[in-house]
Amino acid sequence: MTTAVATAAQVRPITLDAAGITLSALLGTPVGPPRGTILALHGAGMSAGYFHGPADPSMSLLRLGVALGMTVLALDRPGYRLSAGQLPDGQYLADQAATVAAAVRDFARRYPVGPGVVVLAHSFGGKLALTMAADGSLPDLLGLDISGCGHRYAVPEGDLPRSGTGRTRVATWGPLRLYPPTTFRSSRGAVAPIPPREVHEAGRWPETFDEIAPAVRLPVRFTFAEYEPWWRHDLETLTDLRSRLSAAPRVSTERQLHAGHNISLGWTARSYHLRVIGFAEELIAAKGV
Question: Measured on CA atoms in the order 45, 217, 259, 76, is the torsion positive or negative?
Fold first, then answer.
């Protein structure tokens, strides 16, 4: 069996019990004890498949993580996929944080997680990750790695995604040349309706961020795509972003060149995911010091 085939065989769908709510997920597990666990949280209008490279296997975070010794758990957030029937309106951020924390506790009872958990979060998933870090719902978190999410929108509120639609408008992805030609066809399985409560939360995110930012006490790494349309990421805005996370021991802001908003679906996905895993390795090493 080749390495590529073995890696693919170690990625599978699972379900988790989140205090009575059933969440679906994709799980990638390495051979032997994991070096650590990456919890991947997708954005609005997407699903766990966002992290599994539908257009090209080399873009899959799960395959790459497994190959480098990491467990990768990509959750369908509350209100998506399997939990959509139980949560037709989705959940507000505080409730999502509690539900995801319960799911991760169920996961840790059944699978080894290694030295700790690093969250990789995209877009709306970044809002959830920051909320979880602020409220301490997952005490074993080592840090947050966030893409496609800032604290000040670059678009009017009326242009934010609406309930019931996936984020499929081409203009929001960036130039088409940044993605494999089959991306929009192959990614249909990763797209999902946006629950109504997420729309409400998205509209008030700048205020929410200002409220929770001082309570985040973990290292945070933000990545903004070169062609990011949703968020302001000029020097002044990024300086303000870092300053508001005043209790975080480390806050870095980076740019991914040759990428649009959905970095994990584009040509630079592997480059970005390698940096994510590198950041996770740093956090794991720091825990052992």
Answer: negative
